[in-house]
Specification:
Elements: H1 6-17, E1 20-23, H2 24-32, H3 36-40, H4 44-58, E2 64-67, H5 76-81, E3 88-90, H6 94-100, H7 115-130, E4 133-135, H8 141-151
Parallel strand pairs: 1-2, 3-4
Helix pairs in contact: 1-8, 2-4
Organism: Candidatus Sarcina troglodytae
Keywords: Kinase, Transferase
Protein name: Shikimate kinase
């Protein structure tokens, strides 16, 4: 989900195991020269197409932790590109996400924090289906990192 801590946890995990870290949204912004908000102005489908192309590229990498966007699960093809990765669903409480998420740079949430509940309901089964491991982010970051390290094979 947006705001579940993918980037924060991904950066810390990568550092702790000696892997590189890639935030997919930042990667897309660097490659396109546009912000995610700007890309979404030409439609969500356009963004999802770019996300799929990016998934194909990043799925070929090794020795890397990747923080994907929350909507990556909307296309099974994206998940297929990461078949050699351990895919983890960070199941953070929606109440915690809603209480601290910054929606300014999140096009699907802009001016509608309640949209998080709709996204959750739309995606929860996809997250559970594609996430090989479910990590409950209900404690400290350090505990979550230890759980993540236990869940992956590196």
């Amino acid at each position: 989900m947006p705001g579940c801590g993918k980037t924060t946890l991904g950066e810390k995990l990568a550092k702790s195991i000696g892997y590189d870290f890639v935030d997919m949204d930042r990667f897309i912004e660097e490659k396109t020269g546009k912000s995610i908000v700007e890309i979404f102005k030409s439609g969500e489908k356009n963004f999802r197409d770019i996300e799929t192309t990016t998934s194909e590229k990043l799925g070929k990498l090794k020795g890397v932790v990747i923080s994907s966007g929350g909507g990556i699960v909307t296309r099974k093809q994206n998940i297929d590109y990461f078949k050699n990765f351990t895919i983890i669903f960070i199941n953070r409480s929606l109440d915690l996400i809603v209480s601290d998420i910054d929606i300014e740079n999140r096009p699907l949430l802009k001016d509608k924090k309640d949209r998080l509940y709709d996204l959750y309901n739309e995606r929860i089964n996809l997250y559970k289906t594609f996430g090989e491991k479910h990590i409950l982010n209900d404690s400290t970051i350090d505990v979550a990192i230890e759980r993540l390290k236990e869940a992956i094979i590196y």
